[in-house]
Amino acid sequence: VYVVNKAGGLIYQLEHCAPRADTEKTFSFPLDLVLRVHDERVVVAFGQRDGIRVGHAVLAINGAEVNGRLTADGKDVLEFLSNPANYPVSIRFGRHRLSSNEKLMLASMFHSLFAIGSQLSPEVGSSGIEMLETDTFKLHCFQTLTGIKFMVLADPRQAGIDALLRKIYEIYSDYALKNPFYSLEMPIRCELFDQNLKLALEVAEKAGPFGPGS
């Protein structure tokens, strides 16, 4: 869940999903996976085995966390793994976690795309981008009259997202806007907002579409 203010700034973000298990294996030389650098991270470009998939990033080597394309002691990951003297080696692979800066950048980018979509639409008063669909997820967006955007990234099979977005708006109105300590357009830090949002997401996961009385 992402909440973006009318200026395009990310003011709230929540990841509500079952954590994907990382996969750690011990390899002998030569490595039977093809790795490459993508967005300053070392990822699997070819070869899949034992839960390791194309696109998974190298997260740790011999138990030490990897920082982008560098090992914990500052060595280049690809150079380290090309040296037979470093084997056997234990490598942990998994889905790349977005940093706070990357989340801010993505929110700002979508805000710009939303504005462009509204302007390019042949219909006067277009609501902008309401949904983007891929093979693995759907991005749903609901913009309020004041310009606040609520975005949900969900499984493409998940039903009832439109109702969920309006439920999130209701929670925002009740627990953020009515909070005397909350300033408009600023990051949302409210325990009741967090609690009720997580509850709404759990209901959506279990029940699918929201009923009239939810």
TrEMBL record:
It comes from the Eukaryota. It is found in: Endoplasmic reticulum; Golgi apparatus, cis-Golgi network; Golgi apparatus membrane; Postsynaptic cell membrane. InterPro entries: Longin-like_dom_sf, TRAPPC. One of its GO terms (cellular component) is Golgi membrane. Core component of the TRAPP complexes which has a function of guanine nucleotide exchange factor activity for Rab1 GTPase. Plays a role in vesicular transport from endoplasmic reticulum to Golgi and autophagy. May play a role in dendrite postsynaptic membrane trafficking. Belongs to the TRAPP small subunits family. TRAPPC4 subfamily. This is Trafficking protein particle complex subunit.
